[in-house]
Design goal:
Length: 178
C-alpha cells in the first residue's frame, strides 16, 4: 500500500477488490447505458444487488466523461458513482481529456454529496483498452489537481486489480511526486 498526502487529503494505492471497500462511495467504470456489463461494472452490479440497476435505469444513461450517482445497494459503500471512460483508439480522439473528465466529474459529484472517502478503479484500462501506464498518469494527475484545489474529500483510494496495474500506478505516482 502506498499513501501520500495531497493538501488535507490522503491518496492511497492498494491492490484489491473495489466491491469490498468501506468508503463513502466507490466509482464504477460503467458503460453509457448504466445497466451493468463486464469487468468492474459487472462485479459492482453483482455485489451491490438489484437496487443499483433499478436506480441506474431511472438515470437514462451517462455520456463518456460524465458521472452519475446511485445508492450502494448491498455494498459496504453508501454510494456508487458511475462514470464512463473513453474507449481507447490510439490516443488521438480526446481520450486523455475524456478520461480526465471521468475522474474530475466523479470527484465533483463526491464533493456535491459531501462525501469524505472515494475508491476508484483504473477506468478504461480493461475492455476499453486504454494502456494502463498512460491511464495511471492521467488519473493521478487529475486527482492530485482536484485535491489541491478542493477541500472536503479526505481519502481517495485507487483499488487496483492485479499487480501490473498496481505497479503502473505506483510508478506514475512516483513520477508525479518528484
Amino acid at each position: 500500500m502506498v499513501k501520500v498526502n495531497i493538501n488535507k487529503a490522503v491518496l492511497e494505492l492498494i491492490e484489491g477488490d473495489i466491491t469490498e471497500q468501506e468508503t463513502d462511495a466507490i466509482v464504477n467504470a460503467a458503460n453509457s447505458s448504466l445497466l451493468g456489463g463486464g469487468g468492474v461494472d459487472g462485479a459492482i452490479h453483482r455485489a451491490g444487488g438489484p437496487k443499483i440497476l433499478e436506480e441506474g435505469r431511472k438515470l437514462g444513461g451517462c455520456p463518456t466523461g460524465e458521472a452519475r450517482i446511485t445508492t450502494g445497494g448491498d455494498l459496504k459503500a453508501k454510494y456508487v458513482i458511475h462514470t464512463v471512460g473513453p474507449v481507447y483508439s490510439g490516443g488521438n480522439r480526446r481520450e486523455a481529456e475524456l478520461l480526465a473528465n471521468a475522474y474530475k466529474n466523479s470527484l465533483s459529484l463526491a464533493s456535491q454529496y459531501k462525501l469524505k472517502s472515494v475508491a476508484f478503479p483504473s477506468i478504461s484500462t480493461g475492455a476499453y483498452g486504454y494502456p494502463v501506464n498512460e491511464a495511471a498518469t492521467v488519473a493521478l494527475k487529475t486527482i492530485i489537481q482536484y485535491l489541491k484545489t478542493h477541500a472536503g474529500i479526505e481519502v481517495v483510494r485507487f483499488v487496483l486489480f492485479g499487480i501490473k496495474a498496481y505497479q503502473a500506478y505506483d510508478k506514475a505516482l512516483q513520477e508525479l511526486m518528484k
